[in-house]
Amino acid sequence: MSDRPLTPLRYDFSGTIIPETGLSPEDLTWIGPRLEAARAEVLADLNLFHQGGPVPQLKQPLDAGFTDLPDRLLDEYAQKGDSSELGQILATAERLRKLANRVVILGIGGSYMGARALFEACCHPYHNELPDDKRNGCPRIYFEGNNLDNAAMVGLIELLSLVGGDDWGIVVISKSGGTMETAVALRLLVDALRQACQGDAQKIRQRIVPITGQHGRLRDLANALGTPDVFNIPDGVGGRFSVLTPVGLLPAAVMGLDIIRLLEGARAMNDRFRESPPGDNPVLDYVGVCHLMEAWRGANVRVLSTWGKGLEAVGLWYDQLLSESLGKDGRGALPLTVVNTRDLHSRGQQHQQGPRDKLITNVRGQRYHPGVLTIDRWDMNQDKLNELAGTAIPEILEAATQGTNKAYHDDRRPTADIDLGELDEGALGQFFQMMMLATVVEGRLIGINPYGQPGVEAYKKNMNDILRGK
Ligand code: PA5
């Protein structure tokens, strides 16, 4: 247990209660029992998953393993300490931090988006630019293997060969172990590592940490390379539900983040999900509001309106989760992350006056900063900011948030708020778990299996066929 108490995440949907364009309290009362039934189904899915028996055809695939994973990992850590999976993740992260001044995280989709979200939300905004003694012993972090961009790869390899010496390493993440983007990047970087380590096989294998499924090409490669650590992505946890497995936990620990607190946040959300009734349950309330807005008001665009730069990758993580989970059978809402106030100047006009097909959900959290900047009084005043002398940047952001919400409300555009409080690992653990649970609850509510991604498999197969001349 960490010492600091968690601030419970708050989901406030009062801004969606608007006649004609939004919802009424009666709507939410009506959907309550349906949400409870969907929750019961999600919990029954978890039991089915743990029983390990045959899964009915309709439920396949059933990747329900993420549901109680935070609880299981924390319990095991409490019982077994260093020899538990969390203990091993922490030890490997420490080993890598000592060995490497730069770590490249290779993965695509669910295999890297959670780590990137944690990096951008919780690490210093200029982490990689900080001098070594200001990064708390954490390596610089890069993300690759998430595209097929020659220039980007050349640039990274050039950078590593110019400044990396041999003190850099790779965390390679792929559940299937066969994803082209990640496999190609690994091959190229292992070549670069071979050069950097002058072919010393022992040095090379110490600098690579694979995270993969029980079987597959990456597992085979890890065995062939003889890497001292290989982490498993458990069966029954899909890529976009894997942020709280080694997929997100090892990179986070390498970044120096508190992964225990991350899991405690997720466990706290699980407790609320299981125990609280609709109306006081962030998961069920979020699903109820989003579903009713979509089904009854045609709001099939879900704008995750993040306030502050640190939350953009968190939003992108959710975009992927929702798109791949519920975008099936010609259905599924379109998630869209915006970062304000930046995007008020690019998308704001449309959100204010365009089609009424959007539900805005604000996501707010106070990112850690060692000082608060305020506007100074100057001896010039052409910019007319002397009137605001002494006003802090967060106060200006708050005014922008309130002003935007009021403008939407005046135009009867429904908005909801997710308030994360202090933007730390505990808050993100709650958010990740809330959104993963919400996605599967919604899937069960509307009869779409949230697991699996059959559409993406088609592109992978076609690409392979083209490359291999089939
Ligand atoms: O959510 C998913 O399952 C996907 O986004 C995968 O994470 C992504 O396709 C990468 O797959 P893999 O981890 O097998 O390389």
Summarize the structure.
This protein is α/β, with parallel strands linked by helices.
Count of individual helical segments: 16
Element pattern in H and E? EHHHEHEHEHHEHEHHHEHEHEHEHH
How do the strands of the widest beta sheet line up side by side? 1-10-9-7-8
User: Between the first and last Cα atoms, what is the distance in angstroms?
Assistant: 55 Å
The geometry reads as globular
Tell me the major beta sheet.
Answer: 5 strands, mixed
How many runs of DSSP E, i.e. beta strands? 10
Q: Which hetero compounds are present in the coordinates?
A: 5-phosphoarabinonic acid
What does this structure look like?
The protein is an alpha/beta fold. It has 16 helices and ten strands. Helix 3 (85-99) crosses helix 9. The structure holds 5-phosphoarabinonic acid. 5-phosphoarabinonic acid binds at residues 108-111, 174-176, 179, 182, 238-240, 324, 453, 456.
Task: Describe how the helices and strands are arranged.
Layout: E1 10-12, H1 25-51, H2 69-80, H3 85-99, E2 102-106, H4 113-122, E3 140-144, H5 150-164, E4 168-174, H6 180-196, H7 201-206, E5 208-212, H8 217-225, E6 231-232, H9 246-254, H10 259-275, H11 282-297, E7 301-307, H12 312-326, E8 334-340, H13 348-353, E9 358-367, H14 393-410, E10 415-423, H15 425-446, H16 454-467
Bound molecules: 5-phosphoarabinonic acid (PA5).
List keywords for this structure.
5-stranded mixed sheet, 470 residues, binds 5-phosphoarabinonic acid, single chain, 16 helices, alpha/beta, 5-stranded parallel sheet
